[in-house]
TrEMBL record:
It holds the Pfam family AAA_14. Residues 21-155 form the AAA domain. Residues 227-405 form the DUF4143 domain. The lineage of its organism: Bacteria, Bacillati, Actinomycetota, Actinomycetes, Bifidobacteriales. PANTHER family: ATPASE (PTHR33295:SF7). InterPro entries: AAA_14, DUF4143, P-loop_NTPase. This is ATPase. It comes from the Bacteria.
Length: 453
């Protein structure tokens, strides 16, 4: 069991909720939800019961269907079936993959009101229509999002907790790491980009350092996702598959924006909107939308017709990019690991940064403007985030973030953006492979510091 940040979130929930809410953990399949909640049950309670609805027998489902109005009998039967004694206010009941049995989710309202035990639900595709129709969604849920392991969690898994603490301290003080630590951190970042944050893939890499074996695991996960699309996407399955297959090609382009024309010359957003929602709700992708006005409250200026579509995990993007081959060539891993440009590193680094920003709680937004005949007003900024600005009494300001995969690069778009909107901005960030350097409000930070933003 790897150390995961969700455990701290659950500890805070337990202490603050005191039984008044149930925790609902949403996330993609295979990111470690079940493992994390079991570890929490073992460490924080006298006992716990985990009901896995992906394999619960009819005898268990009958308990939920027939005893929902008699909680004394409900708890007695559940305790007996799982051979686990329940202790009032000191036991946890986990509904794993709760979307597969919506009546259990509906029961949360009454179970929380009863107050005897704590409850955690886990699931994917929680919001899909078939999983919420005909049930009353309980208002007593405290929703938490869990994603693949971020770079900090990867460092923990690799035994580099002290190195990541040094990275955070360097970012906070705007002081570059010593060269030896910088090189070590960049190597670790490149390993993370290749392996990704799926716990099974990380575990294999920690134990074997074999990218080939890691690739096999990532391809198995992609196959699982393909099966899920066929099972759960209903009438949108074809569109969902088409979009998912197109993600690497769309990110390969210079501008990265998703072109609907790639799905068919007559494709319209109204036809594909439900398919994009399915992928986003399943957490298989991270959608990044165009914010047309760089002002605090960026969500008010979203253009839903202009967006980028990143893979939810960068390690899976590497495997998906070469899905037409039996295995990802070793040379791809070597080129990225040793900084020998042989593939389009730009799309991998930008995807990895998007993954870190999402993990840090940022809504993914970018800025793009094309002004015909006005080069000074035509620009694209990879990401826009809102951060407290130290030169404005820590009030929130918009910060542009540019991602550069090589040591030599231009800053034309960022220069134009700063010239037009400088009075609204806080610090501006360029994430690149080089050492940290700060020039006034412009911070050039190593890519491995993206999780610090």
């Amino acid at each position: 069991m790897f150390k995961r940040k969700i455990l701290k979130d659950l500890e805070n929930w337990r202490n603050n909720s005191d039984g008044r809410t149930a925790a609902l953990i949403e996330g993609a399949r295979r990111i470690g939800k079940s493992t994390a909640v079991k570890a929490f049950g073992e460490s924080a309670y006298k006992s716990y019961i985990l009901v896995d609805f992906s394999q619960a027998p009819n005898s268990v489902l009958d308990i939920f269907n027939t005893q929902r109005d008699d909680l004394d009998t409900f708890f007695m039967m559940l305790s007996t079936y799982y051979r686990t004694k329940l202790h009032e206010r000191h036991s946890l009941i986990i509904f794993d993959e709760v979307q597969l049995h919506p009546p259990a989710r509906e029961m949360i309202k009454h179970l929380v009101a009863d107050g005897r035990f704590d409850y955690i639900e886990t699931g994917s595709l929680i919001s899909i229509k078939r999983n919420v129709q005909d049930i009353l969604i309980p208002s007593e849920e405290r929703k938490m999002e869990m994603g693949p392991m971020d770079f900090e969690e990867f460092c923990w898994a690799m035994g580099e907790e002290l190195l990541y603490e040094a990275i955070e301290q360097a970012f906070d003080s705007l002081t570059p790491l010593p060269d030896a630590l910088h090189k070590r951190a960049m190597r670790l970042w490149r390993e993370y980009v290749l392996v990704g944050g799926m716990p099974q893939a990380v575990s294999e890499y920690v134990n074997s350092r074999d990218f080939g074996q890691v690739d096999v695991i990532k391809r198995d996960i992609l196959s699982l996702y393909a099966d899920d699309i066929g099972k759960f996407a209903n009438g949108d399955a074809g569109r969902v598959r088409n979009i998912f297959a197109q993600v690497p090609a769309q990110l390969f382009k210079h501008e990265r924006k998703f072109a609907l024309a790639s799905l068919g010359k007559d494709a319209r957003m109204r036809e594909y909107d439900a398919a994009f929602f399915w992928l986003d709700d399943a957490r298989l992708v991270n959608l990044c939308r165009n914010a047309t006005d760089p002002t605090v409250g960026l969500g008010l200026y979203e253009d839903n017709s202009s967006f980028k579509c990143y893979m939810g995990d960068t390690g899976l993007l590497v495997a998906q990019t070469f899905a037409d081959r039996k295995a990802t060539p070793d040379e791809v891993y070597r080129n990225i690991l040793f900084d020998n440009i042989g593939v389009n590193e730009g799309m991998l680094m930008e995807n990895a940064v998007a993954q870190q920003l999402r993990a840090a709680g940022h809504r993914l937004l970018f800025f793009s403007r094309y002004a015909r005949g006005e080069a000074a007003r035509t620009m694209e900024i990879d990401f826009l985030i809102v951060r407290e600005y130290d030169n404005a009494a820590m009030k929130p300001r918009v910060s542009p973030v540019e991602v550069k995969s090589t040591k030599r690069y231009g800053t034309s778009s960022l220069n134009k953006f700063r010239s037009l909107y400088g009075s609204r901005l806080g610090k501006q960030y360029i994430l690149h492979p080089r050492q940290l350097a700060a020039e006034g409000d412009l911070v050039r930070a190593p890519l491995y510091m993206s999780r610090c933003l």
